[in-house]
Amino acid sequence: MSLPLRARPAVRPDLALLEGYHSPQVDVAIRLNTNEAPVPPPPAFADALAAELSRIQWHRYPDRAATALREAVAAAHGVEPEQVFAANGSNEVLQTVCLAYGGHGRKAALFSPTYLMHGQIAAVAGTEVVVGARAADLTLDLAEVERVVVEHDPAVTFVCSPNNPTGTIEDPATIAAVADLAPGVVVVDEAYGQFADRSALELVGDDRPLVVTRTFSKTWSMAAARLGYLIGPTWLVAELEKVVLPYHLDAAKQVAGRVALRFGAEMEERVAALVAERRRLVDRLGALPVQQWRSDANFVLFRPLDRPGRQVWQGLLDRSVLVRDCSSWPGLDGCLRVTVGTVAEDDAFLDALTEVLQP
Ligand code: PMP
């Protein structure tokens, strides 16, 4: 028998209204709702990983500083290992930034519509979330950024580029301008950075409180491993290390990330193939009665023109195709987001969508 509702301890009052993360994990044939890579890592990765895993000393705690992994990530980006902070998915990276720089009495700014977890993570860390609007084309509006940061003095400002769920990207010059305006830490979430031709990585240095977050969940076909990292100023990384739980990155994950980085060439080929497939998907969508936005990520945001988004989402689900329903999110009336999958998955999606949109 469970404890009656009135006898249960109350959660923190500032969390009482939080809803948690909503992305249904439904059993369907075609899953294009969470922006994962459509194919597993190369078979040689699995073999190399198995060999390395057999050498783990399971009775010992892992290397707390994740030294070898950070060295490998640093080498991949041409930075110093002291500029790298790794955690269990980029969500935990973002959480650690909020724990260190947000919290009670502080604010985090974001520009909506954007990745819902930015607000959620900041709020759970006790940070007040302030929301600015994006421009009509869903990119950042610097005048609005200025208004929000002058009014609220945020300790953390989130910029997602390419932005989830819109796919829109910002120029490094725009991000540099945000960093000039914002008083606190600027977090540039580049979970989809490899699919774009621009990055804010060039802006990272000890002279600017700006970090760029990346993940192994998308390009590296390793969503199951839960591994992400940021590149930032050495002094900021040192603060994050004081906040994060000791031994938070298990030994298997540290090895998995390090081994994955040996397959950079294969991953680049996959990214190129996905970008080409995105072009094909965008072309095919262009022939259907939908509005769509230019995407620099591995997904495309679109709005059915003469059918409610929710109804189209359900129609696709009835045909065993799952996409993300953004139709009730502020600023995204009627919109759906589809992940770029394999050619076969995308064809199945396009066929189902064509059928659903039939007059
Ligand atoms: N940032 C953005 C913009 C995302 O879309 C996601 C995944 N949905 C994440 C961060 C988190 O990725 P992970 O925790 O898997 O690294």
Brief sketch in words of this structure:
With 359 residues, the protein is α/β, with parallel strands linked by helices. The chain has 11 helices and 13 strands.
How would you describe this structure to a colleague?
This protein is an alpha/beta fold and 359 residues long. The chain folds into 2 domains: 13-41 and 265-357, Aspartate Aminotransferase, domain 1, CATH 3.90.1150.10; 49-262, Aspartate Aminotransferase, domain 2, CATH 3.40.640. The protein is built from 11 helices and 13 strands. The protein has helices at residues 43-53, 67-77, 89-101, 116-124, 142-152, 172-181, 234-243, 251-260, 264-286, 309-318, 343-356, and strands at 30-31, 84-87, 107-112, 128-133, 156-160, 185-189, 210-215, 228-231, 290-292, 299-304, 321-322, 324-325, 336-339. It has a 7-stranded mixed β-sheet, sandwiched between helices. A 4-stranded antiparallel β-sheet has the order 9-10-13-12, with helices on one face. Helix 4 (116-124) links the parallel strand 3 (107-112) and strand 4. Helix 1 (43-53) packs antiparallel against helix 8 (251-260), helix 2 (67-77) packs parallel to helix 8 and helix 9 (264-286) runs parallel beside helix 11 (343-356). The protein is globular, with a radius of gyration of 21 Å. The mean pLDDT is 95. The structure holds 4'-deoxy-4'-aminopyridoxal-5'-phosphate. 4'-deoxy-4'-aminopyridoxal-5'-phosphate is lined by residues 35, 89-91, 115, 160, 164, 189, 191, 215, 217, 223, 228.
